[in-house]
Design a protein that fits this description.
Low-confidence stretches: 1-17, 453-458
Number of domains: 2
Structural class: alpha+beta
Number of strands: 18
Radius of gyration: 24 Å
Number of helices: 13
Largest sheet: 7 strands, antiparallel
Distance between the termini: 61 Å
Strand content: 15-25%
Helix content: 25-40%
Mean pLDDT: 92
């Protein structure tokens, strides 16, 4: 980009400092309908403009691209808005509204990621590192990104949006953002530096630099593992065909252990002494109490579940290694590549947790508990339920993990039970809020973990 063009972009960013007021009514209607919006079901009380940057000004019939960071109540969201005089029929589903006043009066406002022309422009910005107003585009100079790759949106996501470029790269656009380096950029870069090939290495990214704030990670471009099998879908196919999954689970345990070992080499580790372990247990107990208040069906098992956390708090001689981990590991966060190996993806962690929490070192067993619960979810999604399928997968995964690290995670029985119980409590709250038809899945685990037996399967 020339100096003159850069100056025009900065001037445009200043010009758009006040576009929110005429756009606010349509955004208040549109945002709660988006899958990635965390405030669904609640009224938006406060909306404020954090930054606005014209990545491309609209000229004549050519589309424009407006980048917004919006403060919505206590959260910050990233929006990419397209601007056109009229919307082509092919883009009708992306419509947000029509601007009647302000700097974009008379223009149609729409979701830019659904427009191939604007999605291609975003890739070009990533290919050309440098600043654009508060935005900063960076890339790995050793990783070439060809021009002219055809974009297409990836459907079926929840907390973010993704674009696939030419079946070669995938761009994850973070929607709910906050100050600090996102683990989905930080950890894959650290793993690449440690020589771990189990995670696709970032090739480009973009951030926002705002006054009095750490940079906000906005998007990450990584290789797209074309032809890979999603771990969750692969497990369901094995169940449907009456086949086991133990060899895959064993290999997945080994892959998880390799990633954990590489993260421990690449980033600082700590040891959690008895006091900090007791704090861990106290946090789990508090989450259990809050969930029991919200989900009454959990209350009969509360005392039995609390015993797992009490045992952890009472383990006074326990010193627990903690390190950076995946943070939200389950079958849907894994890919089996065309060569038969396993890759781990989506290192963002649980998006509902503050970024500062997601970047803290934690016991690796938290990831293991998440995967063990995922095997149970897969087994119970198939009818009739076969408990031996889940149990064999759990055994194989732990054995594979032990083969790489030399220590079976089941040897840390108190810690593993506490984390698996905490995960099941989290699942109970999630399903009660979002998918009541699935509530029986975590409740079956709740009964088992509370010592009340497996219970019936609907």
């Amino acid at each position: 980009m020339s100096e003159a063009a850069s100056a025009r972009s900065r001037a445009a960013a200043r010009h758009t400092a006040g576009p929110l007021r005429p756009l606010e009514p349509m955004l208040r209607t549109w945002l709660p309908r988006q899958r990635w919006f965390a405030g669904k079901g609640r009224a938006i009380h406060r909306m404020r403009l954090v930054s606005a940057t014209e990545v491309l000004p609209p000229v004549g019939s050519s589309p424009g691209l407006l980048h917004l960071l919006l403060g919505i109540d206590e959260d910050c969201y990233q929006l990419l808005l397209g601007l056109r005089p009229t919307l082509p029929p092919a883009l009708a589903a992306t419509l947000i509204g029509h601007a009647g006043s302000g700097p974009y009066a008379g223009l149609t406002v729409y979701e830019a990621l659904g427009d191939p022309r604007l999605a291609a422009l975003l890739l070009e910005r990533l290919r050309s590192p440098g600043p654009l107003g508060p935005l900063r585009f960076g890339r790995d100079p050793a990783a070439p990104v060809p021009a002219g790759l055809t974009p297409r949106p990836l459907s079926g996501e929840q907390t973010n949006s993704s674009l696939i470029y030419g079946d070669s790269f995938i761009l994850k656009v973070f929607r709910r953002v906050g100050p600090g380096l996102n683990p989905d950029l930080e950890l894959p870069r650290a793993l690449a530096g440690a020589g771990c090939a189990r995670v696709p290495a970032p090739v480009a990214w973009y951030e926002a630099e705002l006054p009095d704030s750490e940079p906000l990670t906005l998007g990450v471009l990584q290789p797209y593992l074309r032809g890979s099998d999603d771990g969750w879908q692969l497990a369901l196919r094995r169940l449907a065909s009456g086949n086991g999954f133990t060899s895959e689970a064993h290999a997945l345990g080994r892959a998880t252990a390799e990633v954990h070992s590489a993260l421990a080499r690449a980033l600082p580790t700590v040891a959690l002494g008895p006091e900090r372990t007791a704090l861990l247990a106290a946090g789990m107990t508090a989450r259990l109490a809050a969930t029991a208040r919200e989900v009454p069906v959990l209350r009969p098992y509360e005392a039995g579940l609390r015993a797992a956390f009490d045992d952890l708090a009472a383990a006074r001689g326990l010193s627990v290694p903690a390190q950076r981990i995946h943070g939200d590991l389950h079958l849907g966060q894994t890919l089996r590549t065309t060569g038969g190996g396993w890759s781990l993806i989506d290192f963002e962690g649980e998006p509902a947790r503050p970024l500062s929490e997601r970047r803290r070192p934690e016991p690796a067993v938290r990831d293991i508990a998440g995967m063990l619960r995922s095997f149970d979810y897969a087994a119970r999604s198939h009818h009739p339920f076969d408990p031996s399928w889940a149990e064999s997968c759990r055994d194989a995964f732990c054995s594979g993990y032990a083969r790489t690290t030399g220590r079976d995670p089941r040897a840390d029985a108190v810690l593993l039970r506490a984390y698996e119980t905490d995960k099941a409590v989290y699942e109970t709250r999630y399903e009660a809020r979002h998918r009541p038809d699935w509530l029986h899945v975590p409740l079956a685990a709740i009964r088992r973990l509370a010592g009340a037996g497996p219970g019936p399967t609907p």
